[in-house]
Amino acid sequence: MERGVYFDGWYKHNHCYHPSLPIRSMQMLEDLERYHATVLAWAGLGGGSISLPYLAHEAFGPVDPRMQIYGYMNDSEFVAECTRRGIRLFGIVFEVQGWEYPAVFDGQGRLIRMNKRAEEQEDHAWYGLREFSRDEYPEAFPTGLRDWYPDGIRDEDGNPVEDLWEECCIRDRFGNPIHAQWVEVKGHEETCYQMCRNNPVWRGYLKKIMELQIDAGVPGIQLDECELPMTAISSGGCFCKSCMKQFTGYLRERRAEGKLGAEWDGIDLDTFHYGEYLKEHGCTYPEGAPFYRDYWEFQVRQVRKYFGELADHARRYALEKYGRKLEISGNFYNMQPAYYPISDKVDIVITEMEHTLFRQPYYYRYCAGFVPGKPVIIAENPYGGIIPRLLELLDRGKGYDLYRIFLLEASVYGCNMSVPYGGWMGNTIKDSFWAPRELTAGVQDFLAEHEECFPRTRSRGAAVLYSYGSYYWRDSNKGSGANGMQDAYGTLLDATAAEWLDPDLKPVPFWDIIRAMSDINAQYDVVMMPDGDFRADDFTAEQLEGYPLVIVPDCRILTENQRNILLAYARNGGRVLVAGRLAEGTDLAEELRRTGNASFVSLEGGKEAYVPRFMEAFGRAFAPVSPLECRTEKIGAQRYDRDGKTWVHLLNYRYDEQADRVLPAERVELELRDVDAGKLRILAPAGDPLPDCDVSREGETVKVVLRNAGLYTVLAFG
Q1: What is the DSSP letter of 56?
Q2: Is 405 left (phi over 0), alpha (psi -120 to 50) or beta?
Q3: How much of the chain, in percent, has pLDDT values that exceed 70?
Q4: For the chain, domain boundaries
Q5: Domain 462-625's class?
Q6: For 210-244, what is each residue's pLDDT tens digit?
Q7: Single pTM value for the model
């Protein structure tokens, strides 16, 4: 399993200044080894969105002797030290960020102050993408514009680009540049525009960033904001010249293929400009905008096209120049549907959560199923969750058990929570996320020493199908943030304060069902089904093999291939539980009924009515074959099997706020099938007491009773 570290390394009690990460040191290497790190995310070489000369300085520039005394080094040296220790540092490409910083220069154009100290001087100048592309300060760094663009920067028509910042920025429909407000530190002069990857000039610049990172020795590259320019949709973008030109060309292709709806009748696509159309008709955007879905789907296709172009370029460059393979990842933010079409382009999935909570097994199970067979590393998010309060508790010497749950839960359910190492705390909180070293090391020691307990094998429970064609639009445009449903699921404490709630409870059947199943510790895997359009349909019958039950939640769109596989599964004796619609316009439901192996649940009456109906039907269908039963309140349970061995992970959520600790579970009752009860080991992190355990057998069922189970217990059978 991977053990990731969220390696921003921002300074304690200071702002997190994107995009240039703090200089790295030997002490950091000691910490990484102590944490058994294998992958570093958001880890270094981020300054390319200031300028290429700045990035070259990060990579290869000299380090002041005063800093060398304390073991500091440039990024290429740090990459080499990580690689020597078997730690893979992923260079971070902040794709959507384009920066301008306050700067002060001497009479020869040499940079002497930047950002925080520079803005104290009233008549300061600026340094960033604009000045680099104009070659205004060729003496600021050892390299300048002509070292990277001997003939200057030119656009796709061959015209000179005099201002890279203005040329490539994302714009609203009125032509205004859109800021990356989430990274601009409040109260400071620094300025960051969102940049558009659809512009070939910006893609060319990103390729140079990646080449420089590869020259610096990185074994992998992480493309942050890898869904751009969709990043800007909620801020009113993107209506830059590249997006408008490409969207109109896309529409012409769709019309020629007969794939445009009737609402496009009468629209002259020879002159159509989406931004001008919205202004002319006084439309809002994106809410209520005409043709918005067409535009959104166009951008999803552009994401796949240009993310793939960058990934292919980087891999080819590393192979041709250095003869080595390069890993590619991206920030699959909250595993939103826009990332699914590019999931086959990455080697490892790194996702920043939208809302970080203390109990969300359904989210981790979804992440584990999003790209089966590939590691998933999770990073927390300071907004909309528990991280600010958790950091406050840790700073006061409290919340240690909550932090351990935070680190462990993802591993229990098939992912890896990255260790926050100076993690980002947003642009308003003047702090970064550092946790107590020995507390973190204790969790990491357990994960590293007992890696065999996390085989990441297929569950012996149910398969829950996620039909991309049925859900991508609902999941992308309904139910998150303020539009979401709020309830107390996911809260660990018995409080009702909004900070402990989950604002991302999407009111759609797939999410309702997997949350309800997680509530009773039902064993299941999420199985993704491509739509055959945004992503090729590579769904196979082997993906359902071994599951005693397949759950089909409101999958109104299925490909012919998927319908045939599901029907064959039922005809061969597999149980199918359908909730809501199924392959509309086909006779699949009737064919499944004729097999005698399918059950159907209506979605009438809303969530409060259909979830209990579904769970009742699920119990009837699943109880006879359930591989694990654990109904003890506030205990999470997950089973893994491999090579005749079984591991049952138990996570105790009984946190008492007054005592500031997880209280032992006095009695935990488990029922299992197909385990070797004669060979049982009980494991817990160092320093945690082992629970008392009684094991008995009744026919095919092994019953286990644990007394005084602590925060985390693993039962290893066989």
Answers
A1: H
A2: alpha
A3: 96
A4: 4-228+303-453, 462-625, 631-717
A5: alpha beta
A6: 999 999 999 999 999 999 999 999 999 999 999 99
A7: 0.94
